[in-house]
Amino acid sequence: MTNLFQLTGKTAIVIGGLGLLGRSLAGALADAGARVVVLDINDAAGQLFVAEEKKKNHLIEFVHFDSTLPDTYGLLERLMPFHIVVNAAYPRTSDWSLPFPDASALSWEKNVSMQLTAPCVLTTRCAELMKKNNIKGSIILLGST
């Protein structure tokens, strides 16, 4: 199976790469030979994950990144060239799991912005950079309820 999924010479960025799905996907991409850049907000967990993956001889690094802050998307240009973008981020406020009647409209708006608007803006930026740099690749967005 590994021969069918060979990514040597490719760079993958995994946004939300320290979450349950992101972590597994980052490891699988590295297993397939890709250079993987994990983007997430937890610096300590990021360094620990990189150390674990490097023991497997994976070419992997961690970069602090908040997918909900479009002002920080300029960082993406410094990561070029990348061929694969996986957005596995699941940003949410601390009250996101409250029953609907207990959650405020303001919280709803904030979460919709973080979970829908931000990934769309982020994906557009990644696609623009890939096009500008003449890179054909894949953009993968994960979603869940």
List the helices and strands and how they pair.
Layout: E1 11-15, H1 20-31, E2 35-40, H2 43-54, E3 60-64, H3 75-79, E4 84-87, H4 105-132, E5 138-141
Parallel strand pairs: 1-2, 1-4, 2-3, 4-5
| pLDDT averaged residue by residue | 93
Low-confidence residue ranges? none
> Roughly how many Å apart are the termini?
31 Å
- Helices, by number, come to 4
Largest sheet: 5 strands, parallel
- Beta-strand percentage? 15-25%
Number of strands: 5
Topology as a string of helices (H) and strands (E): EHEHEHEHE
What tags apply to this protein structure?
single chain; five-stranded parallel sheet; 145 residues; alpha/beta; 4 helices
Give a structural overview.
The chain has 145 residues and is of the alpha/beta class. Helices cover 39% and strands 17% of the residues. It contains four helices and five strands, in the order βαβαβαβαβ. It has helices spanning 20-31, 43-54, 75-79, 105-132; strands at 11-15, 35-40, 60-64, 84-87, 138-141.
